[in-house]
């Protein structure tokens, strides 16, 4: 069974949760490092999705003949 890819909103929500947990500084070091690694992966995933959305919006604007300022 393949793992379902998280939506942008799900990824952001989990990232916010990780930040809150890391700010509390209650977890053991190994768990803290694992959360940090997960957070970095989520940041990369969110960045990639935002770039896809930006490209999609630009494609729509070009298709509609609109040369809009960014």
Q: Summarize the main sheet.
A: none
Unreliable stretches (pLDDT < 50, length at least 5) are none
Strand-pairing-aware structural class: mainly alpha
Tell me the total number of β-strands.
0
Note the beta-strand portion.
under 5%
Molecular shape: elongated
How many domain units? Answer: 1
Mean pLDDT: 90
Helical coverage, percent range: over 70%
Number of helices, where a helix is a run of at least 4 consecutive DSSP H or I residues? 2
- Give the SSE order as H and E letters: HH
The CA-CA distance between the termini, in Å, is 41 Å
Our Rg estimate from Cα atoms comes to: 17 Å
Can you walk through the features of this model?
With 70 residues, this protein is mostly helical. It has one domain (8-63). The protein has two helices and no strands. It has helices spanning 8-24, 29-63. Helix 1 runs antiparallel to helix 2. It is elongated, with a radius of gyration of 17 Å. The mean pLDDT is 90.
What descriptors fit this protein?
mainly alpha; 70 residues; 2 helices; single chain
């Amino acid at each position: 069974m393949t793992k379902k890819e998280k939506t942008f909103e799900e990824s952001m929500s989990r990232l916010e949760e990780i930040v809150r947990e890391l700010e509390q500084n209650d977890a053991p070091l190994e768990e803290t490092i694992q959360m940090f690694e997960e957070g970095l992966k989520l940041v990369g995933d969110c960045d990639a999705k935002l770039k896809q959305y930006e490209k999609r919006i630009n494609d729509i604007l070009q298709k509609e003949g609109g040369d809009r300022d960014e």
